[in-house]
């Protein structure tokens, strides 16, 4: 999946100066995905256990997405929640990492909470776009806006990742005891990768819609 992420990153980098704040947030998110994928392989090769790196990158990505949603969500109460949520998530990540599941296990609790919060943000932004009077009055379809496609890419990947995060440790335990077969694990990972690639394609579609920005507030 790194190849797809790298390909999607190229047009963002080439047009960096013309990107608005939201698009730049997505650029950094794509970079974090590449670092996540490449870094986890390097950590595993040279250190051994890379589960702590997963937790670190999950939190970094959540922080980036929080900035993205803080910029685009307009409701003051919701913006306040988005603003302070990273501090709560940081506490959950630290507690999960050191006191619940440990640094050598996949932190499914904190990662699952992260994806659930991102899903909530994504759903809220979808509803906000559907009810935006400015878009309705100007007869602007939400699928012509970059923010719609950006949010779609983040949302569908978070859906798959949420299920993956909360089931990974259980699946790993079943595989260790011989109950789960290798094929089941590969199938779940394949679905995750495929959805990840689709997510990157949706982010690129959002990039291709940047010219519409002058007609709306997103």
Give the count of structural domains. Answer: 1
Portion in strands = under 5%
The total beta strand count reads 0
Q: Residue ranges: pLDDT <50 for 5 or more in a row? A: none
Query: What is the assembly state of the chains in this entry?
Result: single chain
Give the termini distance in whole angstroms: 28 Å
Rounded to the nearest angstrom, the radius of gyration is 18 Å
Q: Which of globular, elongated, flat, extended, rod-shaped describes the shape? A: globular
Average pLDDT works out at 85
Query: Which bin fits the share of residues in helices?
Result: over 70%
What letter string, H or E per element, gives the SSE order?
HHHHHHHH
Helix segment tally: 8
- Major beta-sheet overview: none
Overall SS class: mainly alpha
Could you please describe the fold and organization of this structure?
By secondary structure, this protein is mainly α. It has one domain (1-211). It contains eight helices and no strands. Helix 1 (2-14) packs antiparallel against helix 2 and helix 7 (146-177) runs antiparallel to helix 8. The longest helix is centred in the C-terminal third of the chain and has 32 residues, at 146-177. It is globular.
